[in-house]
Amino acid sequence: MPTQVLLVEDDPRMREVLAVSLRDCGFDVRTAATGEQALDQIAAHRPDVLLLDLMLPGVDGLEVCRRVRADGDLPIIAVTARSDDEDVVAGLEAGADDYVTKPVVASVLEARIRAVLRRAVPDGHTRVGDLELLRERAVVLRQGQELALTKTEFRLLCELAERPGTVKTREELLRSVWGYDYFGDTRLLDVHVRRLRKKVEQDPGAPTLIVTVRGIGYRLAT
Known about the structure:
By secondary structure, the protein is of the alpha/beta class.
């Protein structure tokens, strides 16, 4: 069955061009022009991936992202007109798993979609502090209670848990979790670490589990 993609873009020409390109790549594409339409379509026909323009009339893309993320772990790729920190970080903080900037190249977008869908992890059971990682179910438990992690956050935690106490560089984590090189753009990783800390740390402001190693990357405390 083809991967179902919901493309949310208010520019009719760009929406049509991207939809045709993605269909040529083998995706089953639905489209929406507003945030309200996007939310209605997700409720009626939940897609496999959401491609979400952040600049939308009415309910904007950031609000759509927050609502979708509050309701589950649907993979979200934000589409932004600017690559500056403010726009990119806002989209990631709202819950996006990844981002692309306009003008969008269809081949890049295809690669990002396939990468976000490949976020599987090896089977197994791991204990980290007071957390239990049930890899085959992509579930994290604390004292028997499930934590609401996205697939990307879970994959990131599993990568750090492979070698507790050992530093993983930012570049290594970008390659292993997202599957491609960001050429020094570490905003994607750093925002996801902040999001993950909010869910797994007792005090996210003073993290003791996911430790920053300044100038290098992160390590998981033993």
